[in-house]
Each structure stands twice: as structure tokens, then as C-alpha cells.
Description:
Chain A is of the alpha/beta class. Chain A is built from 13 helices and 18 strands.
Amino acid sequence: MRQLPPLTIIGGTLLTGSGDPVKGNVRCEGDRIVAVGDVAPQPGDRTLDATNRIVMPGLIDLGVFEIDKPAFHFGGITRAALMPDQPPPLDYPARVRFAASYGKPDFWVHPIAAATRGLEGSELPELGLMQEAGARAVSSGRKWIADSGVMLRILQYAAMLGLPFVSHAEDAGLAGDAVATDGETATRLGLSSAPAEAEALAVARDIALAELAGAHLHIRQVTTAAALDLVRAAKDRGAKVTCGVTPAHFMLSDIAVNGFLTFARLSPPLRAESDRMAVRRAIADGTIDVIASGHDPRGPEDKRLPFADAAPGMAGAETLLPLTLGLVRDEVIGMARFAELLCANPAKILGVAAGRLEAGLEADIAVVDADRPWIVDADRMEAQAGNTPFDKQPVQGRAIALFKGGMDLKG
Amino acid sequence: MTATNPPSSTRYPAGGEAFAHKDLTGISELAPWQILYLLDEAEQWVELNRQRTKHVDALAGLTIINAFFENSTRTLLSFEIAGKRLGADVVNMHAATSSVKKGETLIDTAATLNAMRVDAIVIRHASSGAVRLIADQVDCPVLNAGDGRHEHPTQALLDALTMRYWLRSRGIEEFNGLKVAICGDILHSRVARSNILLLTALGAVVRVCAPPALMPAAIEQMRVTAFHRFDAAIEGADVVMMLRLQNERMSGPFIPSAREYRHLYGLTQTRLERAAPHALVMHPGPMNRGVEIDSNVADLAERSAITGQVEMGVAIRMACLDVLTRRTRGVLGWEPLA
Lengths: 411, 338
């Protein structure tokens, strides 16, 4: 393939993934960043004027259910960790290898291996071979492994391989077939609901087993104050625990379910307002490490149904950036932390050399107009389906340029 | 068809302003005076149903579909009789024999019914919110005959009409301060939810009673007092409404057995004596005699309203079908909704 000319992005506000924003340039040769900061473009370079723009690493989305390139590129996302709940599940090395290559060169998929064969909750799959094929983590997918004996063995195996375990924290016995959180909304609407404590119970068990196994536990979504307290305490005593959340749980509470809106049918379900505020505090104080989209496009055949019959999930790739920028605007976090949550931390958890603007790393760069206003429209999204609970919401912030390995994706 | 003059304590806006809803999907959408409006409208049908000729041609030429995706005998029968007594062409659609079994989605079923230009659809469905989903897809009025655990508005209305006649027999016109105890599986009950909404809207004081596993979370946010002990809940109650305990709940994780349930939550003669001396006994039916209610209580002629409820049910459903189709029929003053 013909080498692209070097690229210099000039005059932007740089978020390197660590440290405060600083004005500067970024220069790339081939598919790598070669210099960040005080570097001048050379003759023959492609240049991009990023005055008044943010120049940041391409976003890394930890935990998506579909490789939906148009949606990811719209959202400034250059890499995503694909959840194993695929048809068929990612429980076989050849499937992992295929997933890892799918999307290249303009999008990189980091597959997450299934924790059990068929995601059925009992038998170990070939995690070692899957790691070699490109798996960057292990996960039980959308469900929680109820059998603690099985969970411990998987955690021990994952620890041995150095793979983080991405868990879904909802105690199966308590949660059952619940589609909502216990509370006034679920009671008024007559929806099957479970106490929010179902999350804390599962988190407590998973942390205890992870510490026992010496494994790195990443709880993909922590949405309640009680569970966040457990994560905070675990981190304080030095346990290898990280966690994430999607914008749904820091923007919305269970009131959004009123009217039986199936775009607000999510797993875990939306919580009480007090838990939403606890999530925002946890993002600010460092308890939460990652904000991800949970991208799960679902068409009308999955969503245009009575609430309990609809599939959970939202198409979150396009709103991840502007809604997280909203946290900066609301002074919940600063710009440096913004880049950590979306880029540097996901990369660190997945063990990939990315998520930072640093010489030697892949030239995965997003140029963002942080103030650009637009309105989320479920009918006109880039994603495969428009199931967003933020339909009609005005937002600010858009990736106006995106580079993967130095390639201009929006040219 | 002119209604008998409403009681002087109530006044309604003129024409279609009296009921500015396309559908009746729940009590939650109704203002308190709209509830009273429907009760007032039903009284003429109570009278008609006691005549030799129980038929008018008010809805002649209209097609009403009873789309029951969940089984029912009593409610279906009640709606069918109601529609026919008003002169409509009533068609019953059962899920078991319908294309739903072939995997047709609810949305497609709704579109099919809409294309057939039916004039009203009465829907019962096993999923909360399903009726609203269909109502938004069709042009004609939709009546909720029960959606999952969510609402059963005509049941609450007929219960209220039953209570109203009983109150009148004691010289009382208003529901204010009426002490009502609803006892049974509140968690799974759409009858409970609709009744709570209606009774609290009219000023009644509502108590709910259930074992912890069958009591919804945050139920007191619906302005009721929650009890786990039936003896405490029934103390001094003016109305005791018993809910049916479904067979599948009777043994296992929720309740250990039917006899244990009767022991703790059954309406026995002894328990009834704790209620107010005049207390009315109600049950939406069908009853599990000897479980949630003893036969000798259910059959107490002076105190039990259970058969009366069924009679009121037909009248209420006639009122709802009449009011909701007035716009279609071009009744004077009932303009199409914006």
C-alpha cells in the first residue's frame, strides 16, 4: 500500500491522555505518532488546522455488542472491545481471530473472549489460544456467572494468562426476569422489578473471588451507590478492580422509563436518581475508570414491543463523546480526566498500546469541536439502528476529523 | 341518548370536552371528574340492563373488536354483551387462534386491525404497556381490558360504581374518607393498581395488604398504607376488596400453601367482624373459595357485592364504549380531537 504523506495537526488543544490540556501540534509519519507538542510541519506534510479544537486520542470503547463502523467513526471511536455475546459466541480461537481482523485497517476490534463455552456458564473454553488469537479480556457477557465455583476457576485461569475479567454485575436470583429497578416507576407501570441491591451483591461476590484468584476484575457497568462504595473500598485496599459506566446511567434515572419507552430498556436497568448522582460523584473522584458506549443497536423487531418483551440495549456510539463532554461542561470532571476515561484507561485495562498521544503509538487521533451543537435523532443515526434513549436531545461536541494509523477517515 | 341528569354535586364541560381522550388505557390518564363522568354515564345502562329489552341502536353500524391476547371468560363476555346491547357488531379475536401464534408482531396485528377500519378495539394483553403500544398505532379508540400488571381501568370503574350504589343506600354520595382495604397479590395485580389510582383520586383512604413477597416496592408512593398483617389492615374498613391468589403462586417461593395463605390472609367470618359493621365485601372474580375468601362470607347476601360487581361491569363497559365512540358517531358537540 502506498505510504500516506506525514500528517501534522496544528494549533489544537492537546489531550494526551495524561495531564492537563496544552496547546500544541501532533506530527505523524506512516501509521505512528512521531512527535507531540512543539513540532513544526515539514514540507510535503498533510496539515490540519485544529485551532479551537481538541486534539485527543481516538476513543476506545470498552464493551460493545456490534462492530458498527459508521457509528463508531461518527463518535470519534477508533477501537472497541467486542463483547463475546455474538452469534456464535466468541468462545473459539478462530472466531476471536476473525473478530480481531474484522474492521481493519480503519477500525480495530479487540475481542473479549467468552468465559465459558457457549456462554452457558459452566465449561472453560480455550482462553490461552484465544489470547494468542487476539483476545484482550474474558467476559461472561450479558449475564452473571451464578456458580461461584465456576467463577473462581475462570478468574484463576484469567489471572494466570494476565487477562482482565469483564463482568456483568447482577445477582441472578434477585434479578430474575426483572426489567426495571424496584421503585415507584416500576410499581406504577406494573413492570417486573428487582432491588438495586442485586448489583451490590454481585459486585461483592466478584470482588471477593477476584482478590482470591489474583485476577483483574473490570465491572463493565456499576450503576448504584452501594456497588460503587464496594469498588472504592476494594481500590483503597489495593485490589485489582476497575469499573465502567455508560452515559445512560449518569444522564438518566428510572423516570425515563415512563410511557414504557423501550429505548430506555437497558441492562442493568436505569436506577433511582440518588444512584445516578452517586455515579456522577464516582466519575469525579476516580472510582469509575472508564466511560463506554455499550453500543447495542437494536432494530424495531427487538424494540417495538411491550417493554418487558423488548431487548435491552442502546445504540450509544454516537452520543458517547458529547455526553461525556457534558460532564466537563457541568464541571464534574476536567479535560484531562475526560481523556483518561475515554481513551487512556480503556487502553490500559485492555493492555493495548493506545489511548494516548505519545510518540511511538499508533496515530489514532480524533479532532473534536467541543462546542458544536447538534440534536440526537433516532431516525437519522449512522448506527445500524436508532435505539437511543437520548432521542431529540440537544448535545454539544462532535468529532470533525478522525485518523486511524494516520489514515483520514472522514476525508 | 340523553343521560339522566347528573347529581347536582358534579358538573361537566360541554360536549366532547367532558372526555377529551381517544382511548381508555388507564385510570392514571383520567382527571378525577372524568372518572365521575364515566360513573354518571353508566347509570343509564344499569337501568336499561334491568328492562325486558336490553338493547339500543346507539352504536349500530359500528364494528368493535375484542382483541384478547390473554385468556379471559368474564371480561370478554362482559365486553361482548356490552357492545351488542349498544347495537354494535362485536367480533372476538382470540390469541390462540390468531396469527399471533404464527409470530406476527403486535405492531403488525394493530396495523391489520387499523386497515380493516374497525371503530373500537378492546384489548387484553399479558404485557404491561402493550395496550398503549397498540393505541398509538391505530386511529380508532382503544379500551384496555387489562395489560399485564399495569391497569384494568374498567374493573376499577365498575368497582367504584358498585361502591357508589352501596354508599347511596346508606345516604352517602361522596367517596371522601371511605376506608378501603385491598388484600391479596398486590404485586401482580392490575386490578389493585387501577383501584388504588381511582380511589385515591376520589379521596378514599386506601390500605393494601399482602405478604412481603407480593407487595410492590415503593407502593406507599401511590398514597396508600401498606400492611403485612390482614387483621391490622381490615380494622374498621368500610370496604374490603379481596384479590384472587393465582394458582401458580400458591405453592413455592411466594406462599408455602393455600391453607397457610387462608390462615394469614383469608377473609373469614371472624376477620370480617373486625371491619366496620356495615362493611362491603368485594372480589373481582373468579374466587378461590376457601383460599382468599370463605364461602360463607362470599355468599352473605347483605354484605357481599360480588355479583353486583358483575352487573355493574356490563353497564360500565357500555358507558365506556358509548363515550369513546361519540366522536366517530358524530354525536353533536363531540368534535374530533386535535
